[in-house]
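Q: Could you fold this chain for me?
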Amino acid sequence: MRTTKDMDYIFDLDGTEITIEVKQKKIRKEVIEQYVACRKGRKMTQDELARRTGISRPNISRFESGNYNPSLEMMVRMASALDMTLDVKLVKSEEA
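A: Sure. Below is the predicted structure, expressed as structure tokens.
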């Protein structure tokens, strides 16, 4: 892995440089969209989610706006409050 001032890079099997930040933003956006869709699908407000999880509403709001990098614990607690489970897995690049 190579690091510059603002970005980290990894290299895939054929030596192509991949900017980690770009991949992280895409994945984070997808995860946030899933959480928001689940919350709204259950007609739950951020306040209700905060009450059910013990996570402050401002932190939930920051997460949903993409301005907060949540811990795995936070994501599991929110999923549980939404009557969901969090499934994290590694998938080969060809299958992604």
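A (continued): The beta strands are 2-3, 8-11, 17-19.
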